[in-house]
Amino acid sequence: TLIVIILNFTPLINLDIKINTDISAKTKALIFDSYFDDYRGVVLYVRVFEGEIDKNSEILMMAAGTKGLALETGILTPKMTPKDSLKAGEIGYIVTNLKTTRAYMLQIFS
């Protein structure tokens, strides 16, 4: 038995997603995954909504009040490719100096 499903992607194509690309805006990002690397520390996978995250900049986890340092920023291509910063609209990774993934608790930092 063969079942064919035809999906209509037209509504998705017509979505008008607004991204604030003003890098002077207060930085807002979503952490959608993380893991601990024995040699690098906590690595966060993020999407930047507003502002910019520079390499070696201080980051603040809003819910936990935990401060950390963005030791490295970059994008996945599919391997980790370092960049000097992540700007609004970009999806990438941040290598931090944090020692546990519990330190970020909630997924927004500024």
Outline of the structure:
With 110 residues, this protein is mainly β. The protein has one helix at residues 10-13; strands at 28-37, 41-50, 52-54, 58-61, 66-76, 80-83, 85-87, 91-96, 108-109. The strands form 2 sheets. Strands 1, 2, 4, 5, 6, 8 and 9 form a 7-stranded antiparallel β-sheet that branches. The protein has a two-stranded antiparallel sheet with strand order 3-7.
Question: Overview of this structure, please?
Answer:
The protein starts with 9 loop residues before the first helix and ends with a strand. It is globular. Strands 1, 2, 4, 5, 6, 8 and 9 form a seven-stranded antiparallel sheet that branches. Strands 3-7 form a two-stranded antiparallel sheet. The chain has 110 residues and is mainly β. Strand 4 and strand 5 form a beta hairpin. Helices cover 4% and strands 48% of the residues. The chain has one helix and nine strands.
How many H/I helical runs?
Answer: 1
Outline the biggest β-sheet. Answer: 7 strands, antiparallel
Helix content: under 10%
Strand-residue fraction?
over 45%
Termini separation comes to 53 Å
Uncertain regions spanning at least 5 consecutive residues: 105-110
Let me know the average pLDDT: 77
Q: Secondary-structure element order, as H and E? A: HEEEEEEEEE
Describe the global form: globular
Label the structural class.
mainly beta
SSE topology:
Layout (H helix, E strand, L loop, with lengths): L9 H4 L14 E10 L3 E10 L1 E3 L3 E4 L4 E11 L3 E4 L1 E3 L3 E6 L11 E2 L1
Antiparallel strand pairs: 1-2, 1-9, 2-8, 3-7, 4-5, 5-6, 5-8
